[in-house]
Amino acid sequence: MAGYIAVDLETTSLSARHGGRIIEIAAVALTDDGLEEEFQSLINPGVPIPVGAQRVHGITADLLQGQPSPEYVLTQFRKFIGVDTLIAHNAQFDVNFLKYEFNRFGLDMVNRSICTLSMSRRCLPGLQNYKLATVYRHLFNELPGGLHRALTDARMAGRIWQELIKR
Q1: Which of 36, 57, 98, 152 has the fewest Cβ atoms nearer than 10 Å?
Q2: 113-165: per-residue pLDDT in tens?
Q3: C-alpha R_g of the chain
Q4: What pLDDT shows up at residue 2?
């Protein structure tokens, strides 16, 4: 299973093109034995976080005080993911944000991506919805704490992908 990394982002809004920024990023390298090496960081982009976004992930301006800059974190993240395939729940969202942010700092984005949201819709017909938590609970009969934080959500996406490819 080498070459696959589950990723998740927390952002200030739903669109990078309309000024949204990444404020937390996480990735988990996947192996045949499960989840392996991890990368996680908060990011201080120097922009306000709308109240609606704060309600989703709980990340406030106070939490971002003293956190590293987007350029520093994204450069480190680029090294971590290399050219591996990225796994994400609603991968288009994460990949679009990453491409936009990478472009801001002259970094390339050559990684393929696999969407566990699309896979779940194909492999698990009839769920009430296909939110990350719903799919995870369906597959594993449990739900970890810390939902809507990047590292927890990346771990969940990785486990979902591993379970779905077994089926």
Answers
A1: 36
A2: 999 999 999 999 999 999 999 999 999 999 998 888 999 999 999 999 999 99
A3: 15
A4: 62
- CB neighbourhood size of 136 (10 A): 24
Range(s) of the domain holding residue 124: 4-166
Q: Using CB atoms within 10 A of its CB, is residue 163 exposed (0-12), middle (13-18) or buried (19+)?
A: middle
Tens of pLDDT, residue by residue over 20-38, are 999 999 999 998 877 789 9
Q: Tell me the pairing of strands 22-31 and 4-11.
A: antiparallel
- The pLDDT assigned to 147 comes to 83
Q: What is the CATH number of the domain that holds 30?
A: 3.30.420.10
CA dist list (Å): 99 to 49, 58, 147, 149: 21, 24, 24, 20
- Phi, psi for residue 54 in degrees, rounded to 5: -60, -35
Q: How far apart are CA 105 and CA 92, in angstroms?
A: 20
Q: Considering its fold, how many domains does the chain have in total?
A: 1
